[in-house]
């Protein structure tokens, strides 16, 4: 069997992640916390699309103490890659996973008493001890024990913090931490997040009254790390800001010099001159108003490039913006380059990032598609190869 020449395997579109910039972002964020505050790098969802293992290693090299993921498969991959730092599992832990969690230093989140009982029983059966972090729901409405003020006592689904009292007596578990997650820390109006903060402090005191004294209290996501110092506690837990993106349009990160670490590039694969009244792509949703030149770029919704960018997104070529015309298809997107002379196959196209003096950000794409920057990068499908610099 003949092996194809290396050139034949060169991708026509690719993702590049700047790990040097990522490390600098981590150091910048760490510098905003008091001495002794632990740093937990949230690298869930393949590090928001940037590469979980690579970003985890870089975060640790730049001073992170903990890592956080949601799926146990992510934690397994990190251990297989030789990462030994503590990992907090933000999602559900199952009894059958206790052996792996305990022996590999992975902390389980406990958000209800049923989970606590099941994990305790499994740990005792294995004669091991599992470190856990108790999740408190202070206003997110997702996972965690509730404050007594909002518990509907007659409900069979009540999950008040009073149930956590039992955890103090459960064997096979060590309560290492307790935490909450803010729903509106990324908004200018901090009323809601300060209410959550007050409930968190209140609930930590309730845990102490039950004989539960976690070593690590943590609450601050990226927005709270940047704008709410009183939420730093014993550990901060940033995500999006490490990747150089703002938590929302209401959080200004420019003063912190955080740098976006991802770029997406491609090469033009086909160029054609077309006349006036020529229709482009499925549904003929774009018809040329005058003779022009159309370039085809090998990226589509199968790569995670949103179909909502049809007829409204832009790409950069020869340092200029070129509009997307017609619908984004599964594998290809067409751009109008009639205003840019000399376009030919093989020319570099920037889909996300900077070219010359022009720039397209994840926020730009999110604004056009009605979503958030998180989804732009986390939604990449993995079909494009990723290189790290």
Automatic annotation (TrEMBL):
GO terms for cellular component: cytosol. It catalyses: L-alanine = D-alanine. InterPro entries: Ala_racemase, Ala_racemase/Decarboxylase_C, Ala_racemase_C, Ala_racemase_N, Ala_racemase_pyridoxalP-BS, PLP-binding_barrel. One of its GO terms (molecular function) is pyridoxal phosphate binding. The active site is at 44 (proton acceptor), 282 (proton acceptor). Substrate binds at residues 142, 330. Pathway: Amino-acid biosynthesis; D-alanine biosynthesis; D-alanine from L-alanine: step 1/1. Keywords: Isomerase, Pyridoxal phosphate. CDD domains: PLPDE_III_AR. NCBIfam families: alr. Belongs to the alanine racemase family. This is Alanine racemase.
């Amino acid at each position: 069997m003949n092996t194809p020449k290396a050139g034949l395997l060169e991708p026509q579109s690719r993702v590049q992640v700047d790990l040097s910039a990522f490390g600098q972002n981590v150091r910048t964020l760490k510098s905003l916390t008091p001495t002794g505050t632990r740093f937990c790098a949230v690298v869930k969802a393949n590090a928001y699309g940037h590469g979980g293992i690579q970003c985890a290693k870089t975060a640790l090299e730049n001073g992170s103490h903990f890592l956080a993921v949601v799926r146990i498969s992510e934690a397994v991959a990190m251990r297989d890659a030789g990462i030994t730092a503590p990992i907090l599992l933000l999602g559900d832990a199952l009894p059958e996973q206790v052996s792996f969690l305990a022996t590999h230093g992975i902390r389980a989140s406990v958000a209800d008493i049923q989970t606590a009982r099941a994990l305790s029983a499994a740990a005792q059966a294995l004669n091991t001890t599992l470190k856990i972090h108790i999740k408190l729901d202070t206003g997110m409405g997702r996972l965690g024990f509730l404050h007594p003020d909002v518990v509907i006592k007659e409900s069979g689904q009540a999950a008040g913090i009073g149930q956590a009292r039992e955890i103090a007596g459960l064997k096979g578990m060590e309560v290492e931490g307790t935490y909450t997650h803010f729903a509106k820390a990324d908004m200018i109006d901090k009323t809601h997040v300060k209410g959550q903060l007050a409930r968190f402090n209140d609930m930590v005191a309730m845990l102490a009254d039950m004989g539960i004294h976690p070593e690590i209290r943590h609450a601050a996501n990226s927005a709270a790390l940047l704008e709410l110092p009183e939420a730093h506690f014993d550990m901060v837990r940033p995500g999006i800001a490490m990747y150089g993106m703002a938590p929302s349009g209401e959080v200004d990160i420019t003063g912190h010099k955080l740098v976006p670490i991802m770029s997406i590039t491609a090469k033009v694969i086909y160029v054609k001159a077309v006349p006036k009244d020529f229709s482009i792509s499925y549904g003929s949703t774009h018809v040329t108003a005058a003779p022009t030149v159309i370039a085809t770029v090998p990226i589509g919704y199968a790569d995670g490039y949103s179909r909502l960018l049809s007829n409204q997104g832009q790409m950069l070529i020869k340092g200029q913006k070129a509009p997307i015309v017609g619908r984004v298809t599964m594998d290809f997107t067409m751009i109008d380059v009639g205003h840019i002379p000399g376009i030919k196959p093989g020319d570099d196209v920037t889909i996300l990032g900077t070219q010359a003096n022009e720039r397209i950000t994840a926020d730009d794409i999110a604004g056009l598609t009605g979503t958030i920057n998180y989804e732009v990068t986390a939604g990449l499908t993995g079909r494009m190869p990723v290189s790290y610099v």
